[in-house]
Amino acid sequence: MLILDEPTSGLDPIGSREVKDLVRALAQGGVSVLMTSHLLADVEDVCDRVAILERGALRAEGMIADLLRQPDAVRFEVEGLDEPAAAAVRAELEAHTGRRVRQEYPAMSLERYFLQVVAQDGRQRTFALAPFLGTAPADTERLTPNSQLPTPNS
Q1: What's the rounded mean pLDDT across residues 78-83?
Q2: 48: Cα within 13 Å, side-chain hemisphere
Q3: What residue spans in the chain does CATH classification 3.40.50.300 cover?
């Protein structure tokens, strides 16, 4: 069993992602991980089960999916639906249920967006370094900055 207290506290998004990936890998390998955190998005990312404590008292516990499920709400996701079709579906649902239907557009988390931007920036640096590496950028998974790299003209 591994016990972690606020394992991502104070880390930048990349460090946080690396810690969460490590915790997931350990759990998948059969290691029980007990983690405390005030960063609830991190808890959702890594944990299967949670226990919510308030002032030392257990207030709730269970599988995250079960605790967060809203039994009186249903969500449908359809990709590639244009606005007129979405409006028609919304109108049909409202007519059928007699209730207002909320239409939302999916969004990614800020962490995921940040990691995509950083990964894209990393790919651009890989392309810039490709002449020095003698390999295609797609073959390079990770680069470690090194101030001793030669210049293209050396």
Answers
A1: 85
A2: 6
A3: 2-68
When pLDDT is averaged across residues 13-19 and rounded to a whole number, the result is 92
The fold adopted by the segment(s) 2-68 is Rossmann fold (3.40.50)
Query: How many residues make up the chain in this entry?
Result: 154
Query: What's the pLDDT at 36?
Result: 93
**75 to each of 69, 71, 78, how far by Cα in Å?**
11, 11, 10
Rounded to an integer, what distance in angstroms lies between the CA atom of residue 63 and that of residue 68?
A: 9
pLDDT averaged over the chain?
79
Amino acid at 46: V
Q: Which pTM does this prediction carry?
A: 0.52
Instruction: Give the up-direction half-sphere exposure of residue 69: CA atoms within 13 A in the CB hemisphere.
Output: 7
